[in-house]
């Protein structure tokens, strides 16, 4: 099960295998109430301020996750063009204006950094979008993702993108997460590191936090803003904008259970929330938030499990 288990959502990837890099779009053709919560200190985002409950626009029409660092925000223009061509957007006078929040991650360590998602890439991701379960691993926004970077990129492992969902009492909650963290990925069921920084000889997993507790130092040259985990949580329950923002906030707990360390000065960790309302009813937000955090954790784990061995 995946993000497309939520009624009213389509998902598509574009992967540029030349580097690799790419982008992932979740489209809401009928619009969805949205929120966002940014916890990392090095975010790269677009159209997040309008998701505040204080601001006027109620619904968005797509959310884009992209590689390419700040350059990758260009891909949102292609998403807007595709949506406009399909008559999707807010009616403003004579035109429909698509609302497309976006966030990017840093994946420029691998290959030619001048190759990054652009408007054509965003358009291609929309062309590929459908209601099938999206591919996982090193595709779309997770194509160039890596994890466990604190002790040097040469000791890191591949990250990726993963998705998960659950339906409880007729309400579906789902997540899709592009995992490109400074920290390790942990299986919270066992406490075991399943992907992350490797030992100096490359034979074992280091366990970044345990190494820090032993007094080992990160590499001095590691630059801020060169990581970031991005996620979208979604439900077919009816939510207000205020509730959608709270749902995004609670979903970050799912990142914290599966990534260690997380929300660092080097990460721009950002989670969006979408509520399509297709179920036609409300659900207790505490329940929704707890489930959203759980499926976010599952999506993180699926992302690295689906990535090829580094």
C-alpha-based Rg, rounded: 18 Å
- State the CATH superfamily name: L-amino peptidase D-ALA esterase/amidase
Number of beta-strand segments: 16
Distance between the termini: 26 Å
- Tell me which CATH architecture applies here: 4-Layer Sandwich
Strand-residue fraction?
25-35%
CATH class: Alpha Beta
- Which percent range fits the helix content? 10-25%
Total discrete domains = 1
Q: What is the mean pLDDT?
A: 95
Biggest sheet, open or closed, and with what strands and sense?
Answer: 9 strands, mixed
Low-pLDDT parts are none
Secondary-structure class: alpha+beta
Specify the overall morphology.
globular
Explain how this protein is built.
This protein has 310 residues and is of the alpha+beta class. It has one domain: L-amino peptidase D-ALA esterase/amidase (4-Layer Sandwich), CATH 3.60.70. Strands 1, 2, 3, 4, 7, 10, 11, 14 and 16 form a nine-stranded mixed beta sheet that branches. Strand 1 and strand 2 form a beta hairpin. The radius of gyration is 18 Å and the shape is globular. The model has no long low-confidence stretch (mean pLDDT 95).
